[in-house]
Amino acid sequence: MDPGGLELISFGGQGQIYRWEYQGKHYVIKAVLNDESVFRRLNQMREAVERLAKGLGQRIPEGILKRAFPVGRGWVDDPEELGFDKSDQMTVIVYNWIDGEPLDSYLLSQLCSEPPLSSARVKLAKQVLELLTFLEKAGIANYDMFPDNFVVDPLGQVYIIDMEGAGLFDPGTRTWIWTPVALGKNFPGYCKPPEFDAVDEDLKVFSYRWVGATLVFHILFGVSPFAFMQRIDLKALLELYDYADKGAIAWPPYGAEKAQYVNPRLDPAKFRTQIRSSCGVGSRGVCPLEVLAFLTFISGFDKPAHRPSFEFARLILSEVLAL
To answer: Which residue numbers delimit the Protein kinase domain (predicted)?
Structure first.
């Protein structure tokens, strides 16, 4: 392909991202430093997804099939033409192009005026949870579940993108086949799980559930579940956990008011009232959004395996998702 025909879109965590037109169709082109393991990782994840779909007797969700995996590959003859060093060995990954808007800007442009748990928010969250549930059943652990790693097309269909750094584990033994690379970046309102800097990779098997719960809460309620905090680094999270009442399901947890890093403009009690007034109390006598947040961020704080799976999260939120 002619480099002059590439439209630079952005700089990703692993390289440069372009839009390319070929025979009347648009594609996403990623030029990354040569790493054959990227293709082996993606191919094994695709195989895992295909096995699951076959075992369930259903099709792979469109939101995964169309954009999560490559449709082609290649290499760069002259890296200098793309702004890299001449000695760099560059690999090209080709994906289908999705006409749409990144989820982060979609939430601002299309849903900013929507109240918490509106039908539009519920529809979006339901789609995202379906995709995350399918990937989890296939043994795929994707830490980078930030809003800008999803695209929403003009019809409202959600697609997950950027899976190069996702991990693959054996669902039966919970042992890694491919370990996740890392959380790609800091995203406003999204914090790293407490175990993220641990040396033992086995402690991170369930880290993706922390990020996924944050995403679903954000979509449904319009803000991060940590909006009541001024800081969300490990020190602030540890303080929150220490003060939290572990015996009462609530979000923010009872006791959070004592924490040093509380947001003075949205204290825990006020935020808790907003959640309950919007979500209501479910048939079990508690607010489903609070249940998901409490089980993930408090009960699962130092016990990652206790964090709700995405399938269980769908059950917890079933009354909300039925709105």
So the answer is: 3-323
Which residues are CB-neighbours of 209 under 8 A, at least 6 positions away?
A: 296, 300, 304, 307, 308, 309, 310
Domains within the chain, CATH numbers bracketed: 3-96 (3.30.200), 101-321 (1.10.510.10)
Q: Cα-flanking dihedrals φ and ψ of residue 151, to 5°?
A: -125, 140
Ranges of H-type helices in 72-228: 103-109, 119-137, 207-221
* Least confident segment among 105-109, 192-196, 310-314: 192-196
| H or E element, residue 312 | helix 310-316
pTM over 0.85? The answer is yes
Answer whether 297's CB lies under 8 Å from 105's CB: no
Q: Which residues contact 216 (CB under 8 A, 6 or more apart)?
A: 125, 128, 129, 132, 292, 313, 317
- CA nearest neighbour of 262 among 296, 295, 237: 237
* 76-90 pLDDT per residue, tens: 777 777 666 666 677
